[in-house]
Amino acid sequence: MSELIIDGKPLAFVEGQSVAAALVATGRVSWRATRAGHRPRGVFCGIGVCFDCLVTVDGVGGQRACLVTARDGMTVTTEESTDE
Amino acid sequence: MSDPADLIIVGAGPAGMAAAATALAGGLRVVLVDSGTAVGGQFWRHPPEHARSVIPTEDLHHGLREYHDLREALAAHAQKGQLDLRLHHHVWSAVRQDDVFVVHAVDRRKAPQEIAVVLRAPRLLVATGAYDRQLPFPGWDLPGVLTIGGLQALLKGGGVAAGSRVALGGTGPFLLPVAASLAARGVEVVTVCEAAHPRAWLRHPGPLLRNPGKWAEGAGYALTLVRHRIPVRPRTAIIRAEGGARVTSVRVASLAPDGSPRPGRERRIEVDAVGVGWGFVPQLDLLITLGCALTDSADGNAVVAADEGLRTTVPGLYAAGETCGVGGAALAVGEGRLAAESVLADSGAAPVLRGKRLAAVRSAVAAQRAFARALALAHPIPPAWSSWLTDETVVCRCEEVTAGVIGTARAEGACDHRQVKQLTRAGMGWCQGRMCGPAVHCLTDPKQAYRPAERLVATPVTLGALADLDT
């Protein structure tokens, strides 16, 4: 298994999985809050259309977790971490 | 590939793969562009090549012999240098300049890094497929509620299930393979709520009888569902999802013929994930900005107007697959082949398919189109679906615009999804109305086919990638 770093903690994933799949594999389906209602959001369409699953990858914001292939050592930051 | 290409194909799903294979067999030089990590599109979604032994997904697929044949043909041509396969490339714009198509993409192989790529060819084929159509309901924005396509993509692409107790709902045959895939991975599918009544099929028996392959496929799913004891409940719908940080239950209602919930016929079912889908919406962004004429399809979508050879109204521009009307993978493959034949003919190249083989593809395409039309008529959006909305139900997920706010805009005179957008911001967020557009359209102007707003940039790109452009 390879590992990425999510909000400072290691997350093991299977090579070839998207960041969203890696998160879902651990039982997580939300990692963001909406701007106005602060409602939890995560994976919804799974194919890059809805933009609900946005994360920051290696310092670049607005990345769709369902489209970014997880890489060993990749740094992922979720909005949940910034809210805390 | 150093020489200029004869044809650019956007989308490497069933239509794009088949079109590429035919055009390559006819001697053309082809660039095939797709945002995915492997060829196959949504229907034949696979993990990247290097990950297939650790993420086995072959058993979740249908029509894999065709997929492998096409994939091998493409690989052979890529090796010869005749095919330039661009995976991980996101196309954000296509324009026609002096009889040449200029396709702008970003190379995201090292995402989040983006490298601007400009591709040029005298002919362009758009096979960008479709995504799940959504109808909002209270709680549909709770975590754990996904599109059925999203559930399937996680299974086929990443080998993961988004829940362990899942309810599926909506309409159309796609509910069945998703239920079967989930069950194959040990997920308990507690209910499949199909809004339509099977009797609706009896109104159009002809297309059903002429497509025995579809019968067999349906029977296969039915057997799988019976084996896993998955209940399929016709004329029911998931009308509410409940929970806090994650969905914990759904309310399932028995529907009257117009789609309104029958009073007192509601059940609560505990779940940890939900999948919904009401047919599909074709991905027309590139085609609309290129100026193609559209036509109405039986499923309530506007689709690209194309002739028998899949030529659009823009010279040199072709379309195949769901962009020409949602009809499934087998139809998409046939249309891809016919579109490529048109490209060959219009380029002055010799045909690949001749005589009986060409006639067979044409007649299969005609039969599958008739089937798709019957399917759309048998699985309509229930007319009274909006009766399960409350004023607080979020309709536009991005801008968090509620059904109540949209109702006010309608009362103030907004009579289509564009006017609602101007008044309420519904459709102005990250997804640019891709999720809520069809629903807002159904709330305002259900008698007309849904024509998406023109989106000049088909996918967000960084300013850095734009600055790299040297054109």
Automatic annotation (TrEMBL), chain A:
UniProt entry tagged with the keyword Hydrolase: no
SUPFAM superfamilies named among the record's database cross-references: 2Fe-2S ferredoxin-like
InterPro entries: 2Fe-2S-bd_N, 2Fe-2S_ferredoxin-like_sf
GO molecular function, one term: oxidoreductase activity
Keyword Repressor: no
Pfam families, per the entry: Fer2_4
Keywords of this entry: Oxidoreductase
Protein name: Proline dehydrogenase
Organism annotation: Streptomyces toyocaensis
Lineage: Bacteria, Bacillati, Actinomycetota, Actinomycetes, Kitasatosporales
TrEMBL record, chain B:
Superkingdom of source: Bacteria
Record GO terms (molecular function): oxidoreductase activity
Keyword line: Oxidoreductase
Residue ranges of every copy of the FAD/NAD(P)-binding domain listed in the record: 6-332
Gene3D superfamilies: BFD-like [2Fe-2S]-binding domain (1.10.10.1100), FAD/NAD(P)-binding domain (3.50.50.60)
Alphabetized Pfam families for the sequence: Fer2_BFD, Pyr_redox_2
The BFD-like [2Fe-2S]-binding domain, residue ranges: 394-441
Protein name stated in the entry: Oxidase
